[in-house]
Amino acid sequence: MDIDSVTQDNVLNHQELQGTMVRVTGHLGGDVDVWDSIKLKIGGHEYTGSVDTLGNGERVYHVDVDSDVMKANTAFSVEVNGHDAPGNPYSKTTSHTYAVDQQADATLIVDKLTGDNHISRAEAQGAITHITGSVSGDVHDGEHIKALVNGHQYDAILHQGNNGLTYDIETETSAFRAGHNRVSVLVEAHDDHGNITPYTQTLNVTMDDPAPHKGHTADKGNHAAMQHALHNLFDDSALSLSYAPVATGHGQATAVLSADDKAKAMLDKVDLSDLARELHEGVDIAKYIQSGGDHHQIASPAKVAHGIDTALSTHASGDPHSATYSLDHLIAKPDHNPTH
């Protein structure tokens, strides 16, 4: 007697163990007949099979074994017992080993996006954000790898190079949201035994708001640019402006901005409360002033003539709870009353 391989490659894979039973088969010779006994012993369990005769007269047998028992073991024995025509008894036992492999193996590595898993405002301006990394194990050159970004799916091909299998998945930066993002990278491993096993790695990626909302404080770069523009407008060769401390009714002082005739002529066209707001929101101040603030309310000449309180305590909207904006942080104030 002999025992056939339990599968074509004698390895039980994940799919082959999904049924309730695994059939073990083999061939018989000699005086064995269909009424003889076939028993399979495995891991303390015993199963009974049957002998069959093929059309060509060959004797074969089969024994059905619980899949869970086959999964938990890698060896079994088959015993046949009977007697020949004159009544002489016989017994034969044969053992068999096999393997169980239910999983294809892979190691998936995902590099940190942008080096730190944080997409800055500057990085968010790019149309493409790259997800890169490497894979090893039961994966192969030319196979696919995927990325999921907030429900958007992207695909790339694995490439074999000097550093092994690597990938570069191009994702749309617009798929990321300001704040927290969940990024998943998925690859399927395929081994020689027919297993297909998915592998996933997840990253938590944060992103700055690519377009800051109006009313928010400008970042350092914008602040420096606005300060430079304001100084160019208000330098001695263009407009003469000066600060003077003025006492308030509560024993405190506030800075009042005074202007010469040339400055007044320019500033008569611009409402400084709007200017402060535009400056705060990062517009091109030079263009704003040179246009005369034509998309805002025109300032009264008396505002410059009587001095301009840059604390802007009076709200243009009339709403006592609306935000105020100040120019104080953009023009250096002297310690004492300035002189021209």
Provide an overview of this structure:
The protein is mainly beta and 340 residues long. It is 14% helix and 40% strand. The strands form 5 sheets. The chain has a 7-stranded antiparallel β-sheet with strand order 1-3-6-5-4-7-8. A 5-stranded mixed β-sheet has the order 11-18-17-13-14, with no helix packed on it. A 4-stranded antiparallel β-sheet has the order 10-12-16-15, with no helix packed on it. A hairpin with a 5-residue loop joins strand 19 (241-247) and strand 20 (253-259). The model is unreliable at 236-244, 253-257, 293-326 and 328-340 (pLDDT under 50).
Q: Which helices and strands, and how do they pair?
A:
Blueprint: E1 2-3, E2 11-12, E3 21-28, E4 37-42, E5 45-53, E6 59-66, H1 67-72, E7 75-83, E8 89-97, E9 99-100, E10 106-110, E11 118-119, E12 128-137, E13 144-149, E14 152-157, E15 159-161, E16 164-172, E17 179-190, E18 196-207, H2 220-233, E19 241-247, E20 253-259, H3 261-267, H4 272-281, H5 285-290, H6 301-305, E21 308-309
Total helical elements: 6
Look at the helices and sheets and give the structural class. Answer: mainly beta
Percent of residues in beta strands: 35-45%
Main sheet strand line-up: 1-3-6-5-4-7-8
The rounded Rg comes to: 42 Å
| Low-pLDDT residue spans | 236-244, 253-257, 293-326, 328-340
Overall average residue pLDDT: 77
